[in-house]
Design a protein that fits this description.
single chain, 144 residues, OB fold (Dihydrolipoamide Acetyltransferase, E2P), 2 domains, 5 strands, elongated
Length: 144
């Protein structure tokens, strides 16, 4: 009998919770519901872990930018960028000028992923390459 009373209270609480959430969304502010889903925006960790899923596709990733004389790459995290851990990075086909970036600062990069061993070597130990690279803030709205 006590178990039934507890279950009834739990069910009643859940119903009230869902009704409250529905009521809260019923106002004029629908910004959360109106956001567009951009399929090209992908977490960099997913690209590094599953490169075959994104090979040849247009992707947008956020990472830590590193420009060097011999190569330019976007890294998974700041520590990897500073430590030059290229295993957790994507090589880029274009670079920013030194005035446009902060060393190992976060940037958004868009391009077509190429999963290849062509660029793998002593200095760069990743088989990921981004072609037709664009450096922009892809999170801004067109109207801004």
């Amino acid at each position: 009998m006590k178990l039934n009373n507890k279950l009834n209270k739990i069910y009643s609480s859940l119903i009230m919770l869902f009704m409250g959430a529905a009521w809260a969304q019923d106002g004029d502010d629908h910004e959360i519901m109106d956001m567009e889903y951009n399929k090209t925006v992908v977490p960099l960790v997913r690209v590094i872990a599953n490169p075959h899923d994104f090979d040849g596709k247009l992707i947008t990733v956020t990472g830590y930018y590193h420009l060097e004389t011999h190569l330019t790459a976007v890294f998974l995290d700041r520590d990897s960028c500073l430590g030059y851990n290229t295993e957790s990075s994507i090589l880029l086909d274009k670079s920013l000028s030194r005035e446009e970036y902060t060393h190992c600062g976060r940037i958004d990069v868009q391009g077509y992923l190429k999963h290849t061993r062509d660029y793998y070597g002593m200095r760069y130990q990743s088989d990921l390459y981004l072609k037709d690279t664009k450096f922009e803030d892809f999170n801004k709205k067109e109207s801004e």
